[in-house]
Backbone:
């Protein structure tokens, strides 16, 4: 064979090899571009979700502040009215305030999204709260049913994570059902053996588990998609409908809690099974008894809401306190002088001209044993939580709270030597 022929053969083989490599590289490049596009869309969606969460948290905080004044005014009014019919209307206002505040508080916890330690959580109570919040989010045309065979099961999982798990599964079911259908959530205690693990492909150690089942009556998941549903970038939704988290977040939450997850299609719909290791329920410390029926103390209230200040002043004066009120951090610091030395200070966490933390730090330098009650319409931030952990002369009150709760908190705090 001539040298020219060999060169032609080598050249042809090289061209074929180069063409194959080029095709592989081109396909990889297309895949990278697709993933980059998907990442950009998910980043945009993440920013929109974060902004929406912050807005919801801020609105819920302001809403709770307004509810605090309404709730306090209703309690003061109830004391002044004598008839049962009038009391019934006041109770209706108070119950409505508590329900609205509970919903708003759930919104602020979701918006905060702070990493917290996993502690024993009553699963039944947490699931009921989560389903209540889910019902507000997915619309009234979706029917939600809870079947909890066991009421006292506890697992070591962050309560906000469990709430997020239920919401993600719920929103996925709503999208699959087109906004109309049925969701059924169950809770029961199961004992899983090695045979159960192998038979049901459950990746966990044998033992006692809480089984949370989440089922819908939608079209189910086909076999091809079932293999990918927990992948971070996989979605069967159209443009703009996917979320950054969703099912991959559900998978991560379950694994971080030491649990396992199984999915199966039913005759109608799909069911997610979450297995969480059972733990002993957390012991709830007995609340200290109030030191007396009435208070005899000097109290300073610092809050920028005039309605809340007036109501709180009325409640504490009725309880026997000498009360002064201020509307800013600067005024609160000036109010503690020679002519008025408070036994306790009630501080709104968010105050004009400095905030509750600044007032606390200033007053603590003057009096190491001054009793301080922080108040807020949202969960305490990390700085306030640190103060509450380290300073035994501090306490925290959620807004709104009932008058008896506020008085009792002060009584317990003032009883500390």
Residues:
């Amino acid at each position: 064979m001539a040298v020219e022929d060999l060169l032609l053969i080598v050249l042809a083989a090289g061209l074929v090899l180069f063409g194959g490599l080029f095709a592989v590289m081109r396909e990889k490049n297309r895949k990278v571009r697709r993933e980059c596009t998907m990442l950009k869309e998910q980043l945009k969606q993440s920013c929109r979700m974060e902004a929406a969460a912050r807005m919801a948290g801020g609105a819920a905080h302001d809403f709770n502040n307004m509810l605090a004044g309404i709730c306090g005014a209703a309690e003061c009014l109830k004391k002044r009215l004598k008839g049962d019919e009038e009391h019934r209307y006041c109770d209706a206002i108070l119950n409505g305030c508590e329900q609205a505040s509970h919903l708003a508080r759930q919104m602020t916890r979701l918006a905060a999204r702070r990493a917290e330690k996993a502690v024993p959580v009553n699963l039944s109570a947490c699931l009921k709260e989560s389903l209540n919040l889910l019902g507000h989010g997915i619309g009234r045309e979706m029917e939600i049913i809870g079947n909890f065979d066991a009421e006292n099961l506890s697992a070591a999982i962050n309560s906000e994570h469990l709430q997020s798990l239920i919401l993600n599964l719920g929103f996925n079911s709503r999208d699959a059902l087109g906004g109309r259908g049925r969701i059924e959530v169950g809770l029961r205690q199961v004992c899983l053996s090695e045979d159960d693990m192998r038979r049901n492909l459950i990746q966990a150690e044998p033992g006692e588990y809480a089984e949370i089942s989440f089922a819908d009556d939608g079209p189910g998941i086909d076999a091809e998609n079932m293999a990918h549903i927990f992948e971070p970038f996989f979605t069967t939704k159209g443009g703009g409908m996917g979320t950054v988290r969703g099912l991959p977040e559900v998978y991560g939450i379950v694994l971080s809690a030491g649990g396992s997850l199984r999915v199966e299609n039913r005759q109608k719909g799909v069911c997610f099974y979450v297995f969480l290791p059972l733990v002993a329920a957390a012991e709830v410390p007995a609340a200290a008894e109030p030191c007396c029926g009435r208070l005899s103390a000097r109290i300073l209230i610092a809050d920028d809401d005039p309605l809340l200040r007036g109501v709180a002043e009325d409640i504490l004066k009725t309880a026997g306190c000498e009360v002064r009120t201020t509307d800013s951090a600067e005024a609160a610091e000036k109010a503690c002088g020679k002519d008025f030395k408070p036994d306790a200070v009630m501080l709104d966490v968010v105050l004009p001209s400095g905030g509750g933390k600044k007032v606390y730090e200033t007053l603590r330098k003057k009096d190491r044993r001054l009793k301080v009650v922080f108040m807020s319409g949202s969960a305490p931030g990390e700085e306030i939580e640190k103060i509450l952990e380290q300073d035994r002369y501090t306490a925290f009150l959620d807004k709104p709270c009932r008058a008896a709760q506020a008085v009792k908190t002060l009584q317990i705090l003032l009883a500390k030597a």
About this structure: Residues 14 and 406 are 84 Å apart (CA to CA). Residues 239-245, 284-292 have pLDDT under 50 and may be disordered.
